[in-house]
Amino acid sequence: MSVHEFQEQEYSKKIDFKIWKKVFRYVFSYKKLVATLIFFMFSVALADAIFPQMTQRAIDDFIVPQQMDGIETFIFQFILLILWQATNIFIFIATAGKIEMNLAYDIREEAFLKLQKLSFSYYDRTPNGWIMARMTSDIRRLGEIISWGLVDIIWGLSLMVIIAVFMVIYNWQLALITLAVVPLLALISIYFQKKILEAYRQVRKINSKITGAFSEGISGAVTTKVLVGEEKHLQEFQSITGDMRRNSIRAITFSALFLPIVLTLSSVSMALVVWSGGNRVIAETLTYGTLVLFISYATQYFEPIREVARVIAELQQAQASAERVMSLVNEELDVFDSETVLEKYGTLLDPKRENWEPLEGHIDFKQVTFRYKNGETVLENFDLQVKAGESIALVGETGSGKSTIVNLICRFYEPTEGEICIDGSNYKDRSLSWLHENIGYVLQSPHLFSGTIEENIRFGKLDASMDEIIHAAKLVNAHDFIERFPLGYQTQVGEGGGKLSTGEKQLISFARAVIANPKIFVLDEATSSIDTETEKKIQDAISKVLKGRTSFVIAHRLSTIVNSDRILVIDKGEVIEEGTHDTLMSVKGHYYQLFTNQYKENKLRAMMSD
Amino acid sequence: MEKLKSLWAFMENNRMKYVASMLLMGLSVGFSLMVPVIIQVLVDTFIGQIDPEHFLVASMVQRMGGTEWLRSNLWVGGVMIIIVTIIYGVLMFFANRLSAEASENIAKNMRDNLYNHIQHLDYDTHKNSDSGDLIQRATSDIDTVRRFLAVQFMEVGRAIFMVSIALYVMIQLSWKMTLAAMALTPVIFIFAFVFFLKAQTAFRLSDEAEAEMSTVIQENLSGTRVVRAFSREKYEIDKFKKKNREYTDKTYTLIKYLAYYWSISDFVAFTSIGLVLVSGVYFANLGEITLGGIIVFVQYEYRLLWPIRQMGRILSDLGKAMVAADRIQEIMDKPIEKVSEEEKCPPITGQIVFDNVSFSYPDDLNRKVLNQVSFQVERGQTIGVIGRTGSGKSSLIHLLGRLYDPTEGTILMDGVPIQSIQKKWLRQHIGIVLQEPFLYSKTIRDNINFSNNSSEKAIYEAAKTASIHDVIKSFDQGYDTLVGEKGVTLSGGQKQRLAIARTLINDYPILAFDDSLSAVDTETDIAIRKALSERRQGITSFIISHRVASVYESDWIMVIEDGKVVESGTHDELMEKKGYYHKIWDMQMQTIQALEA
Q1: Minimal CA separation from A228 to chain B, in Å
Q2: A363-438+518-609: which CATH topology?
Q3: Stretch 40-59 of chain B: residues touching chain A, C-beta under 8 Å
C-alpha cells in the first residue's frame, strides 16, 4: 500500500548554530570572495560616513567665512570620494551576487546528487511538491540571506561604529547625547522587524492557499459544475481571501507603525543635538559645520540599526529553510553500494564496466522479509526461484505485496532480512548500476521527459543510432503513429509527455525499454482504459518485449497472464498459488476464483450468443 | 486608456479611501519637509540672529517670544522638530493604513470576482484554456496589480508631492540654486526609467532559466523510477548541471547589470549633492543665500534623489501592471454560462427524449460530433452506450448536463425542452460521474459528502456501493484522510470509485457514468454494477463504456460510431444483427473463448 502520511516537521525558533555551521561549510569555499565583500562593505560604510563631513567642511571652510580659497581642492576631493564610492558599490553588488548564485548552485547540485541516490522509501514518504520547494525557493532564499545578509550586517555594524568614532573625535559630549536613544532604537527595531516578518510570513502562507484554491477551482471546474458546487466553493474561497485581507492589513499596519516610532525617536536625538549643540555654537565652542554634521549623523544612525535588526529577524526565518535544505542534503541513504563494491565496480558517476560480470537472469529470493520503516511487514520469509528467461506474472489485489516484490528485484528497496541472489550471488555484492543497466522497466503510468520522441527512446541506450531507435519503435508498433506526426521522431512530447495520449506514451516507453536490451524485464501493467486497437498493439508489443528475457509482470491483461511461464497468486505477502494458467485453472483455487469471477458472466453470454 | 479603465474599474468603492489616503500622504510629506526649514530658522535666526525673510516665519518667531528669547531657549526648536515629526508620522501611518485597506479590498474583490467568474465559465472555455496560464493570471497577475495599487501608486503620489513641495520651498530660497540642485535629476530619472525598461529582458531570461531548471528537477522527481531503472543518474545529473549553470549565469548577469545601475546612479546622485554644496558656497559668497538655506537644500536633495530614482523604476514597471490588468480583464471578458429569466425548474423524473439532436463543438462547426441522434428513455431504464474513443459518446452526457447545448434538435426532460430548464436545477437532478474524476484536496469524508447534508451512515453506504469503503478503512485516518499532495495518493481506480460514491450519496433521478469504471479492475466493475442495480430502482441511468462487459446487461444498448447511432437494442438483439456490436463483443471475448476451447 502506497499510503504514507507526510508530516511537516516543526522547527525551533532559537538560532541554531549547528545548522548554520553546516551551511557555512559551503560558504567556506568562497573565502576570498567573502573577504573581498567584507572589505568593500567596510569601505562603503566609511564613504557613507565621510559624505556628511564634506558638508561640514563646505560650511566651515567656505560658507561661514564667506570665502572660496581652496574650493578646487574641495571639488577634487569630492569627485574622488564619489568615484571611490561608485567603485565600492559596483564591486560589492557584483561580489555579493557571485557569492549568492554560487552558493545556491553548489547546494542545489549537492541536493540533486543526493536525490539521485536516495532510496524509494524516501520518495514514498516525501511528496514531490515538498522536495521541489526545497530545491527552488528554500535554496534561493539561503543564497540570498547569506550573501545579502552579510552585506547588510557588515555595512550596518561598520557604519554604526565608524559614525560613533567620528562623533567622539569631533565632540565626545555631543556624541553621547546623540547616541542616547540608540539602545531604545535598537530594541524597538528588533521587536518590530520580527513582528513584521512574522506577519508577512502568515500572508505568504495564506497566499499559497489562494494559489491552491485557484488551481483546484480551475482543474476541478467541470466537476464543480456537475456537482453544482459553485456557491459552496465561492464561500470557501471568500473566507480565504477575507483572511488574506485581514492579515495583509495587519502586516502593513505593523510596518506603518514602525517607521513613525523610529522617526520620532531619531527626532528626539536630533532635538537634543540642536538644543545642546546650538548652545555650543552660540558659546562658540562648536562650529556650524559640526552642528550640521551631528544633525546628519543623528538621522543617518537609524538606517543601519534597522537593517541589522531586519537581517537578524530574517536569519531566524531563513533558519527553517536552512534546516529543511540540510535535512535533505544530509538524509541518510538506505540503499547504497558498500566500499568494496564501489572499488570493484565503480561509482554511479564513474562505473567500471570492465569489471562487470555479464548478467544471465537467475533470480533467487532467500527467506526475504521486508518491512516499512513504520514496522509494517509486507513480506515475511519469502522464497522464490526464477530461472533465466522465465516469465512470471504476479497476480493479486492492490496491497498484496506484488509491487514490493518488483521493487525488491530492482533494488529500489533492499530486504530487511534474507537475501536476493542474482546468478547465484547476493545482489548487494554487485553495484546498483550493474543491476539497473541490465533491467528494463515499464511503468503503469508511463513517464516521459520533455524533449523529442527520439530523445525519449534514446534514454534507454544513450549511444543508439537512429536506425536502432526506429527498429525499437517498429518492434513495439510505435513507428507508424510516430511517423504520422508532421515532425516524426523530432516531435516534442511536452512536459511529462503531456502532448501524447496515454497509449502513445506507453508504446514509447516500451521502445525505450526495448532499446536498452535488458536481461531482466519488469512491467507494471496499466489498468487504465485504452481503445481496443491500441490495446492490441500494446499486447503485441509486450509479447515481443518479454521474449527470451527473465520477466516480472504485475499483470492485469489476460493475455499477458495466460502467456506467462508461471503465474504467482500473491496474497498478504505470500504466494498462495503458483503454476501455469492451465494448472491453476484445474486446481480450482484462488486463481480460478479470481479468473472466473472476472469472466464468468462474459463467458456465459458469449456461449449463449453463439 | 482602455487599459487604465480596467484598473479604474477594479478600484470601485475604494476610490474615496484612495483620495483620503493621498491627501493624508500629501500633508505628511509637507510636515516631513518642515524639519529642515525649522533647522534653517534655528541656525539663521536663533543662532545667527538674521531676521527671517519670509513673513510667515517672521510672525511665528515674533509670536514665540522673539529672536532674543528663543536664542536663550533653543529647546523650543528641538521640541518643534519632535512635534512636527510626530504629526508627520501619524499622518503617514494613517495614509498607509488607508491605502492598505483600499488596495487589499480591491485585491479581495478582484480575486473573488475572478474566482467566481472562472467557476461559471463555459465548459468549452475551460476545455480549451491552458490551466497553468489561468492560474498564472489569477495569482501573479493579480499580485502585480495589487502591488501597483498598494505600493507603487502611493510611491508615485508621494514622489510628486515631495518634488512639488520641495521645489516650492527651494525656489523661495533661491531659484538659481534650485536650478543647480535640479540639474541632474532628469538624468537620474531617465537613467532609471531606461535601465529598468531594458533590464526587463535580463529579468525575463533569469526567470525563464529558473523555470527550465525547475522542469528538469520536477521531471526527475516524477520519473525517479525510470531514471533509476535505466541507471541514467549521470545523464540526469549532467542535464541538471547544465540548467543549473544556465540559471546561475543568467541571474549573475542580471545582478551585474544591477551593479552597474546602482554604481552609476549613485555616482550621478552624489554629483548632484556636490553641485548643491559647491553652488551653495558660491551663492553664499555672493550673499544670495544663508547658511540655513544651504542646509535646507542639502537635506532636500538627499530626500529627493531616492523617490526620483524609484519613480523612474516604477514608470518602467507600469507597463507590467497594465499588461497584468489586461490579462485579468481578458478572463473577465470571457462568456460565462448564460442564465436566463425564462428558465424554469420543472419536475424531473427521468423520462428523456432526444429528438434529432446534432452537436458540433463551437470551434469546429463543420464536424458533427453527434449527428441526428434520436431516442427515448423511460423512467427507470438503464441505457448502455458503447463506441470507440472519439465516437461522440461522451457528448451525450455533456448535452444531458447542459455543459453544451445541442446545435440542432431538442432534448426533452419529461416533455420540457432542456434549454428552458435552469442549469443548476438540471444538474441537481442528474448525477454525472466524469471520465477523469477530480477530487478536492479535502478529507475523503468531505469529498464524498460534498453537499454537506448526509449522515455518516449514508456516507458509508455510498462508499460501500462504490466498493471503496474497505480501502478507506485501511488508511490510518480512515475517512478523515486528506486527498492529494498533503495526504494520500489514490490510484486512478480509487479516484473513480470515490467519485462514484460522491455521486451516489445524492438521490438523483438520473445517473450518468461517462466511462467512469475504466480504471477499475473488472471484478470491482462487476461488484459496483451489481450494487448499483440494487440501488437504482426507478432511476434512469446511462452507462457509457468502451467495455462491452459493462453495458451488456442494460435494458437497451446504443452503439455510436462517428456521431451516429449505428445500432441499438438489447444485447441479444444486437448479437443477432452480427454488426458492429457483435464485432466488439467478439474482439473483447476472443481470449476467453480461446481459453474455453
Answers
A1: 6
A2: Rossmann fold (3.40.50)
A3: 42-43, 46-47
